[in-house]
Amino acid sequence: MSQYWSAVVHGLTPYVPGEQPKIANLIKLNTNEHPYGPSPRAIEAIRAEASDTLRLYPDPTAERLKLALAARYGVTAKQVFVGNGSDEVLAHAFMALLKHDRPLRFPDISYSFYPVYCGLYGIDFETVALDENLAIRTEDYLPEDNGAAGGIIFPNPNAPTGRALPLAEIERIVAANPQCVVVIDEAYVDFGGESAIPLVARYPNLLVVQTFSKSRSLAGLRVGFAIGHPDLIEALDRVKDSFNSYPLDRLAIVGAVAAIEDEEYFERTRHAVMATREQLVADLASVGFEVLPSTANFVFATHPTRDAAELAAELRKRAIIVRHFRQPRIEQFLRITVGTDDQCKALIGALREILG
Ligand code: PMP
Known about the structure:
alpha/beta
């Protein structure tokens, strides 16, 4: 606190990212990073770009990346926005598309950055309770039942639950709310969910946000993108060019292009994560956990008799970290990132020891 702080800063409640501890031999299952490295082609492209050209500014529009994404997802470059991680893309969407007189709506249990952006930008919001199985109820987002929203946003699959809505349900929500923008945050969609990108051609109020941090294993490069109607993309560009004209550096642009082009590596590694997840779910159940159905690269699990915070602390003593949220309704859950097969085996071994 300081007399030099603005009133806005005094009022902020910032997001707290998952820890990045510097413990040796740590099994890090707390921030949903990919257990395998990025495409070797991405690393090669980044190495080649680390040269004298770094004295020059990057392309402010990252056109090469927009074209690569447009080709990959069957849209035009005018329907693509890119930013410094999907957090930045989301932040611009809050400012550009979700700040209106009527409140923004999102689930009570969801990505905890959403209320933070609302605080930063002065956006009025209402949370909508997940059902008793921690699932999103489509009906809660239909205006005939609940009134017209100023905007709607949720992750699909949701975080931290891992539960996904089928595409037909997403379409019902988007179609029922032509008065506002619906943002679907697909950070985890490549691990078994259905992307809403094919709906973009038909719904001018739909913005789909994705990231290179999860299924493309490039959390360290900071690249995210959005796909939507060109008018929505123009709104994001207006905010971006009022904030930072060069959000993607030269290394990020070439690395992301190479990663998008390496479809074979993407397919192989995301399927490896999904296969490990199925084994992890079975193994967690065998030591007594109840696990929500997951289409993400993490699982959300609760033990009927053991306190989640204590389990997290015990795992930590054994150099295994998972995420625990001190939040009503989910304080007895652990969010566990799907690691390599060996990491997941070590986790189960440690849990067996802790549970006795
Ligand atoms: N959306 C959701 C639901 C997330 O969990 C995350 C990761 N914390 C993000 C967006 C942001 O990811 P990034 O900024 O790395 O693209």
